[in-house]
Amino acid sequence: MVPLYILGLLLRFGPQHGYQIKKLLEEQLADFTQIKLPTVYYHLDKMATAGLVLAHTDRQGARPEKTVYEATPAGAKQFEALLRKTLHTTYRPTFDIDASLYFADTLPPHELLLAFAEAESWLCHTVQLIEQHKAETLACLPTQVAVSAGLIFDHHLLHYQAELTWVRQAIRRIKEAAPHDENESN
Amino acid sequence: MVPLYILGLLLRFGPQHGYQIKKLLEEQLADFTQIKLPTVYYHLDKMATAGLVLAHTDRQGARPEKTVYEATPAGAKQFEALLRKTLHTTYRPTFDIDASLYFADTLPPHELLLAFAEAESWLCHTVQLIEQHKAETLACLPTQVAVSAGLIFDHHLLHYQAELTWVRQAIRRIKEAAPHDENESN
DNA sequence: TGACAAATAGTCAGTACTGAGTATAATGAT
DNA sequence: ATCATTATACTCAGTACTGACTATTTGTCA
Question: Does residue A68 sit in the same domain as residue A104?
Fold first, then answer.
C-alpha cells in the first residue's frame, strides 16, 4: 500500500523529497490514508536499496543537503505489479469496537448507550465533512480523473453511513434488551 | 485490541495455554479477528512481565512442559480499562483498493471491471456465509449474550453489504465513463 | 533586526505483528 | 505394529510502523 502510493506519486509528479511526498499524500489523500512521515522515509530507503527509486542528494545554495527520490524503470514496473495486486485485495474489515461488544455483558448498559450516542454524533458530523470535501474536490478535477476520485469518496461515504445505521440499530436494541436504565444517573 | 481479547478470555474461561486462547479466538471470533498464534504469545509474554497475567509451568505425566496463563487482579483492572478505551475508539477505515483506484487512469477499464466483477461475486458469497454463521451461532446462545453477538454479526453484515453496493455502483460508473470496451479481448 | 512561530527535512529507538520453523503427542489408517 | 497425519505448544528472526526527537530555514510581526 505505502510503496504503491509513493511510487505512483513519484511517477505522476516527478522526483520529490520525502517531505514533499508526505505533503502530496496530505493534499490529495488525507481522507483516505493516515501515512506518517517516518513511514514514507522507511519505504523510500527500502526501495532505494532495492533499486526501485534513485536517491540523489541535492545541495543548492543553502547549506543543508536534501535527498531527492526518483522512480527508476524497475520502480515503474513494480508500481504496475503493486497496482494490479492491490486491485485484487479482498475486503476484510475488523472493528475494534466489536471486541468491547463481545465483553459487553461486563458493562452496565447505560455506559454502552453513552458511547454509542457519542459515536452517532461523530459519524453524522464526519459524513457531512466528507460530503463537503467531495464536492470541493470534484469541482476542480477533469472528468476522467473525477470518476475514480468520486468512487473513492463514495466508498468512504457508504461505509460511514453503514456504520451510522449500525450504531442507531445498536442503540435501539440495547434499549430494548435493558429497559429503563435511565435512573442510573449520578 | 489483542490484550483486551486475551484478558477477557482468561477472565471468562479461566487459566489457559497460549494455544488454547488461540483456539477460543478461532471458535468464538473467527469472523471478526485474524489474530495469529505468535501474536498471542507476544502479548502473553508482555503482560506476564507487566504483572497482568501469571505464567506457571505445569508438567503433568507427559514430559514436555506447558505454560498456563492466568489473569491477575491487576490484569482484571487493565481489562476494564481497555474495555472502556476500546468502546470509545472511532471508526476510521482505510481501503487498500482505493490506492489502486487513485491510479486507475493508468489501467485499461476492462481490467478494473474484471477485478470488480470478482469482488462482487466474492462479496455475495461472503454475505451469505456470515448470515449462515449468524443463524447457527445465535441459535445456541442465551438471550442476554445473543444481543451483543447479534450486533457484532450485523456490524459485519452491514459493512459487507455497503461494500457490495459500492462495487456495483463502481461497475456501473466505469462502464458509463468508458463505453464499449468489450472488444479488448485477447 | 531580532526574535518567535511555523514549515521543512529528516533520524532513531521502540512496539507490534507474523511467516517460517522446531518439537512432541495423539490419532487414524494399513 | 508402524507409519503418516493432524493437533498441540512454542520460538525466532525479520518486517512494518511510528512517537518523539533533532536541526535548519523561512516568514512575520514588532
Answer: no
Chain-chain contact of A98 with B34 (C-beta, under 8 angstroms): no
| Nearest beta carbon to residue A99 from set B86, B144, B162 | B86
In this complex, do A97 and B91 lie within 8 Å of one another by their Cβ atoms? yes
* Average pLDDT by stretches of 10, chain A with 186 residues: 97 94 94 96 96 86 76 97 96 96 94 96 96 91 86 97 98 86 47
Same domain for A145 and A109: yes
Which tens digit of pLDDT belongs to each residue from A51-82?
999 999 876 655 567 899 999 999 999 999 99
Final residue in a domain of this structure, among B69, B87, B105 = B87
Q: Are residues B35 and B2 in contact, defined by beta-carbon separation less than 8 angstroms? A: yes
Q: Cα dist. B154→A20, A167, A173, B59, B140 in Å?
A: 42, 10, 12, 43, 17
CA distance B174 to B171: 5
A1 Cβ within 7 A of any nucleic strand D atom: yes
Structural domain boundaries, residue B69: 2-87
Both A70 and A105 in a single domain?
Answer: no
Cβ of B6 less than 7 A from strand D: no
Residue A185 pLDDT: 44
CA distance B133 to chain A (A): 16
A59 sits within 7 Å of strand D by its CB: no
pLDDT, average across residues B115-124: 97
Both A83 and A100 in a single domain?
Answer: no
Do A55 and A20 belong together in one domain? yes
Residues B57 and B123 in one domain: no
Helices (H), chain A: 2-13, 18-29, 37-49, 73-87, 96-102, 109-139, 143-177
pLDDT, one tens digit per residue, over B140-181 is: 888 878 889 999 999 999 999 999 999 999 999 999 987 765
Grid cell, residue A141, equals 478535477
Same domain, B76 and B124: no
- Domains in chain A, number: 2
User: Which CATH number characterizes residue A142's domain?
Assistant: 1.10.287
